[in-house]
Amino acid sequence: MPKLIAALIRHADYRQRPDTPSAHQPFPLSGEGEAQARQAGVALRDAVTRNGWTLSAELDSSPLLRAWQTAQIIGAELADLFPDPAQVNAYEALAERGLGSANNLSIKQIEAVIHDDPRFPDLPADWKSNSRFCLPLLGAESLLESGERVARHMEQQMATLASHTEVDTLKLFVGHGAAFRHAAYHLGVLPFEQIARLSMFHATPVYLEYRPASGWQHIAGAWKVRNTGSAYTD
Questions:
Q1: CA dist., res. 32 & res. 13, Å (int)
Q2: Where are the alpha helices (DSSP H) in 88-224?
Q3: Which of 16, 137, 177, 231 has its CA 20 to 30 A from that of 131?
Q4: With bands split at pLDDT 50, 70 and 90, how would you rate the model's confidence at 23?
């Protein structure tokens, strides 16, 4: 059976509002982010050439603009390597953890909303990074729930790829750091206690091999070790 590799790529740097959880902010890449996405293309080209992989022409992206732009730039950088014209497909399943009706409010605004609602106690200090915590608001989800939908999407897409490819193939998934790390936990790649200790570098691939019979394995690409006390924004 050919090797099937998934590249998890966190979006590049974007114009994020300060003190606001990433959630579903609709803003584009910064100039730095555009450069990071182009550099991701260089790194991916090297990996494809060195390993003799074929690139899947279908790039899966979160529908959030920062991820979609990252995928578009990467696709353009690698245009000559795809066996067919590259196509970026946006999937809601790859979006970052949603905060429901609190999406895109600042941290202080979210905490004030909950404080002023007589139905709920004040938020715990670790509410942004607690993998199991879900805001008690319409449409919100926990980090673990977001990771589960990302993992399910990846499983389905790689199983489909396995059903028709006969060569070693790399498929690109462009999304968000927190959702990807929690997906890695659901896929058996990261132990639970490591999730909060790690992050992802912008536009830097982490490679997982999909093995239908024995599960997933991390084969290349480094996770980013989070600094103690650093702000949790992804």
A1: 6
A2: 107-116, 143-162, 177-186, 192-195
A3: 16
A4: confident
Calculate mean pLDDT across residues 52-61: 97
Token pair, residue 17, equals: 């509002």
In a domain, residue 231? The reply is: no
Asked if the structure places residue 233 within a domain, the reply is no
CA 129/CA 233 separation, integer angstroms = 9
Average pLDDT score, the chain: 95
Name residue, tokens 């999730």.
195
CA 35 to chain centre: 19
Structural domains counted in the chain: 1
Distance, CA of 180 to CA of 20 (rounded, Å): 20
Domain of 119, CATH number, reads 3.40.50.1240
Q: In 3D, which of 96, 107, 94 has the Cα closest to residue 27? A: 96
